[in-house]
Amino acid sequence: xxxxxxxxxxxxxxxxxxxxxxxxxxxxxxxxxxxxMAHKRLCRSLEAGEEPPFPLEGAVIxxxxxxxxxxxxxxxxxxxxxxxxMDAFAPMLxxxxxxxxxxxxxxxxxxxxxxxxYGAVHLSTIGGAGALxxxxxxxxxxxxxxxxxxxxxxxxxxxxxxxIVAYDSYGNSVYK
Length: 176
Fold this sequence. Notes:
This protein is of the alpha/beta class. It is 22% helix and 27% strand. It is built from five helices and seven strands; from the N terminus they run E-H-E-H-E-H-E-H-E-H-E-E. The longest helix is centred in the first third of the chain and has 12 residues, at 36-47. 39% of the residues are buried.
């Protein structure tokens, strides 16, 4: 079995363009969390000309709303949210430099076109395995929209966080 590609955000164009649908990857470094309400606020602030709460260039966003951390843990269960719920917002963020999203399920046509146009990928990870995935998160900090609770934007430090390239930057998909 081949070793998975090791991704270290922020991602570069050359790294993203080297990925193909079906590739197994592990992520090591800083990723950010955001779900529906955080995406809505983030896009509104960008439209208003404000700076985002984290650098979008080369960034990876994980669609997750983690549960509270148990004693001795940095985060609770952290399984992926359905990706299509962020489809209305993803093209704008990809155009601003976002290089990867992580979630579960299909992406709409507009998102798939943005991935191709701007050179980004969508990664999928296993739904229902939030407790297992949380073991790959070694630090977590709320950095924006704290009032959203589980949906606040967090900066996560991850080690060998597993995913599969579901949609690559060439228009290919594991779902076809």
